[in-house]
Amino acid sequence: MKIVVCIKQVPDTNEVKLDPKTNRLIRDGVPSIINHDDKSGIEAALQLREKVGGTVTVVCMGPPQADVALREALAMGCDDAYLLSAREFGGSDTCATAIIISTALKKIGYDLVITGRQAIDGDTAQVGPQIAENLGIPQISYAEEIEPNGDVLTVRRQYEDRHHMIDIKTPCLLTALQELAEPRYMHAGGIIDAYDKDITVWGFDDLKDGLNPDHIGLNGSPTKVVTSFGKMAKGAGTKLDVSPDEAVAAIIAKMEERHII
Amino acid sequence: MDFKLSKTHLLQQEMYRRFAENEVKPLAEEMDETEVYSMELLAKMHKYGLMGIPYSKEYGGVGGDYLSYALCMEEVSKMDGSTGITISVHTSLCCSCIDSFGTEEQKQKFLRPLIDGSKTGCYGLTEPNAGSDAAGQQTQAVYDEATDEYIINGGKIFTTNSGFADTCVVFALTDKTAGTRGISAFVVPLKDDDGNRTPGVTVSDNIKRMGIRAASNCEVSYENVRVPAANRLGKEGQGFKIAMKALDGGRIGIAAQSVGLAQGALNEAVEYVKERKQFGRPIAAFQTTQFKLADMQTKIDAARLLTWRAACIKDAGENYGPAAAMAKLFASDVANQVCREAVQLMGGYGYCREYPVERALRDAKITEIYEGTSEVMKMVISGSMKLK
Q1: I need a surface site. Which of B31, B285, B292, B358 has the fewest CB within 10 A?
Q2: How confident is residue A229, by pLDDT bands cut at 50, 70 and 90?
Q3: Does residue A29 have a pLDDT over 90?
Q4: CB contact, 8 Å: B83 with chain A?
């Protein structure tokens, strides 16, 4: 089985802070990590390879610095890696990102595509499903368990108050939850091997046959971020320990006082 | 001159750090209290390659270098000195003797299982009456021509890892009249593949110690232990040279362990002084605290650079003995100073067993003693200065 895992390099949100003046993330000096859900996706892919054989390819779109995220994936045991990196890709929203990644996936080939559910820096959970739509393959999001069963995969999908057990035939796409698999550490020797391997870097020219320049990058992105801001800290509320009637009267009085009603 | 780590080293450092924080740190306090090393942790260290870093992939090792090994030693020792010495004795004492002096057949037979994760090693040089005077060995190995075996008799002390190790490199006299040239080195299985103790080998309980209490450190006695002649490393009489060469490399590991103990204690102290308020403000706001921390970090950095330099000289295949001795001499002193100051900064809390700096201070003392005392380091360094 040819498994392709799509990963994103994100700032470690445990260490990230918001600039109070500009409301932008302060990325300077913040370590970058593989997005947690994506890393679980890598682990699930490696476990699947151990069960059914095949290869695990890892794909990342990002700046040249994302190389280290791919090396980490190789050191965990992935077979090969692709970095999609070009000036033209910069500023892409989820829609444009999914177009670029699915163009690359068509070229790489796949039986199973695994993405993380969502990235901790954007939290949209859109890229995985959009890739599946672009490729025209079935998808199961929120996968928390994958079991190979003959020519199908039996996937347990998390829901708010239940879970679904779904059989799916390949080729298909799954989006992985962090609970899907506890990622292994890199192997010390795997790190040495990872730096001996070549990572394929694809820029715009390598993918241009499948890409419309008007649909990628900042200008090709339908989503525009108007502004971003941190959560306002709320002060402690007033607590009244009174009867319901008195409570209603107190609330109405407060609303009148503030000209809400 | 470039003081930057390579990308490979940086990623290894990151991996060792994550492993130490997630796997070693949660167990360190309990292992110290119970004086028992976790076999689950040991198995994980084997699994992820921490027990075979500077050895060739040809034999199942990681294919790293001594600098990689030093980075690992620092990261694990930040969390636990006992884990540092467990890795160090296996790697730079036991395995290095076989790697440097073993034949191809011996490497396949003895080194491979030690670095591919199947077995753990130890090193038997120190005896009750032969410490710094390592040449004063009393353990004997007598050759039995009829069976082509050596028969070993004697006792070793402070053999780290011996409580659970499978393999020991043992030094013994093959010629009592030849001084240091009468010592030979043998690979002695302490157990068979099923875990049964080798006949004639007895391992004591863990010796009660001040620090690195989780490490297994026992007396091992050898009574008519028969070892095939094929297990002798090098020629008869080469043992002392083999032992000293291993210790030269081991000292880089101990220097790195010292740096780790110091940096780990300093990191704890830094977190503490930012939180701890006295006289109305965090004690980190007092210049006396800031200056003390500045001194501590400067000393640690100096010790780290000496350690990395020794590792790089070894990796370059040059004479690293004096550099390794300087690194160990200085770093072990820094570890003791910094851990003591960390306890001082944390006051009564730092003295409590609940806080890891108390353990670090107890663990640090041994770095000035084992794998050559500070006094022996000065002998090695001054010996290289052409004073006579």
Answers
A1: B285
A2: confident
A3: no
A4: no
Across the interface, of B18, B50, B63, the residue whose CB is closest to A192 is B63
Contact between A188 and B15 using a beta-carbon 8 Å cutoff: yes
Domain assignments of chain A as residue spans, ordered by start: 2-215
Closest-CA distance of chain A to residue B260, Å: 19
Contacts of A191 in chain B (CB under 8 A): 8, 11-12, 15
ipTM of the complex: 0.90
Query: What is the 3-state secondary structure of chain A?
Result: CEEEEEECEEECCCCCEECCCCCCEECCCCCEEECHHHHHHHHHHHHHHHHHCCEEEEEEECCHHHHHHHHHHHHHCCCEEEEECCHHHCCCCHHHHHHHHHHHHHHHCCCEEEEECCCCCCCCCCHHHHHHHHHCCCEEEEEEEEEEECCEEEEEEECCCCEEEEEEECCEEEEECHHHCCCCCCCHHHHHHHHHCCCEEECHHHHHHHCCHHHCCCCCCCCCCCCCCCCCCCCCCCCCCCCHHHHHHHHHHHHHHCCCC
Tell me which residue has tokens 């440097």: B100
Instruction: Kindly tell me if the per-residue pLDDT of A260 is higher than 90.
Output: no
Q: Which amino acid is at B123?
A: Y
For the question of residue B58 being annotated catalytic, the response is no
Nearest-angstrom CA–CA distance, B108 and A147: 39
Q: What is the largest CA-CA distance in chain A?
A: 75
* One CATH from 1.20.140.10, 3.30.450.40, 1.20.1250.20, 3.40.50.300 for B241-383: 1.20.140.10
| Domain A2-215 CATH assignment equals 3.40.50.620 | yes
Decide if B277 touches A, using CB distance below 8 A. no
Measure in Å the smallest separation between the Cα of B281 and chain A Cα atoms: 24
**CA A179, chain centre distance (Å):** 14
Q: What is the average pLDDT across B54-82?
A: 97
CATH 1.10.540.10: does it fit domain B7-115? Answer: yes
Nearest beta carbon to residue B8 from set A185, A187, A192: A192
Hey, are the CB atoms on B11 and A189 less than 8 Å from each other?
no
